[in-house]
């Protein structure tokens, strides 16, 4: 049996293969693929470093103002165009009401006309007249108290008999509830509103000041007041 020997490639064949693009691609592709695969397996893990949050904000200090060294405002002006604020007080020339409250004392009231109510009685001011008022007397439960079971200021129907018969009725009734401010019971508010009178309640000191102002501005016919002394204490 005859043996066949493979002859070595010719020089022309080797030159042709070197100049062919497919030959270069075949030789370079395995190396590139191997390099990429090894890089993916041996690449170090990525590490992220988080910077700490800083709370040291820069705050600019407010400008420092220096107090004036002198309070001298210069010579007094003699111009005739200066405004006299005293002349702008429209109530300064209005006569005070006859029931102007001059002072609130612990056991009563002093009025601007010289009248004094003492002995622990309250006052009811209607139509320019002052009446002694004791709303805690004559209660149905027999208690000399101004508070109901819920801690609300409560004056029963018998305390408003004068307002029920007077005519014309005032538009506003100012209540002075004693030394402190208290909630008004719905029943008391209903009785007053049923007579066509609006009601506003405060502690006695502020109620007296409000009555003096409104009675001077609007007249004693439109404004009435019912107050108990600032020294009132609930019985134990």
Report on the architecture of this protein.
The protein has 236 residues and is α/β, with parallel strands linked by helices. Helices cover 25% and strands 15% of the residues.
Short summary:
The protein has 236 residues and is α/β, with parallel strands linked by helices. It has helices at residues 11-19, 21-42, 161-165, 186-194, 204-218; strands spanning 101-105, 108-111, 116-117, 122-126, 129-133, 172-176, 198-202, 223-227.
CATH architecture of the domain at 94-227: 3-Layer(aba) Sandwich
Output the helix-strand order. HHEEEEEHEHEHE
Helix content: 25-40%
Overall pLDDT metric: 79
Percent of residues in beta strands: 15-25%
User: Helical region count?
Assistant: 5
* CATH topology descriptor of the domain at 94-227: Hypothetical Protein Mth938, Chain: A
Distance between the termini: 142 Å
Describe the strand arrangement of the main beta sheet, using strand numbers.
Answer: 5-4-8-6-7
Largest sheet: 5 strands, mixed
Characteristics:
single chain; Hypothetical Protein Mth938, Chain: A; NDUFAF3/AAMDC
Please describe the topology of this protein.
Elements: H1 11-19, H2 21-42, E1 101-105, E2 108-111, E3 116-117, E4 122-126, E5 129-133, H3 161-165, E6 172-176, H4 186-194, E7 198-202, H5 204-218, E8 223-227
Parallel strand pairs: 6-7, 6-8
Antiparallel strand pairs: 1-2, 2-3, 4-5, 4-8
């Amino acid at each position: 049996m005859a043996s066949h020997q493979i002859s070595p490639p010719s020089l022309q064949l080797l030159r042709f293969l070197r100049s062919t693009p497919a030959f270069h691609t075949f030789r370079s592709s395995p190396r590139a693929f191997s390099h990429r695969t090894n890089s993916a397996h041996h690449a170090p893990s990525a590490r992220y470093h988080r910077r700490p949050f800083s709370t040291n904000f820069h705050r600019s200090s407010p400008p420092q103002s220096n107090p004036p060294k002198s309070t001298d405002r210069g010579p007094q002006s003699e111009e005739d165009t200066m405004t006299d604020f005293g002349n702008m007080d429209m109530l300064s020339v209005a006569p005070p009401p006859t029931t102007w409250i001059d002072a609130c004392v612990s056991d009563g009231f002093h009025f601007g006309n010289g009248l004094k109510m003492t002995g622990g009685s309250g006052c009811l001011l209607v139509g320019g007249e002052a009446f002694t008022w004791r709303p805690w007397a004559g209660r149905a439960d027999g208690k000399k108290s101004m508070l109901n079971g819920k801690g609300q200021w409560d004056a029963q129907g018998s305390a408003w008999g004068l307002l029920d018969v007077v005519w014309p009725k005032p538009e506003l009734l100012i209540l002075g509830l004693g030394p402190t401010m208290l909630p008004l019971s719905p029943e008391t508010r209903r009785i007053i509103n049923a007579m066509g009178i609006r009601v506003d309640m405060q502690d006695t000191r502020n109620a007296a000041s409000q009555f003096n102002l409104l009675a001077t501005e609007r007249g004693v016919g439109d404004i009435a007041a019912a107050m108990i002394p600032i020294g009132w204490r609930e019985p134990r």
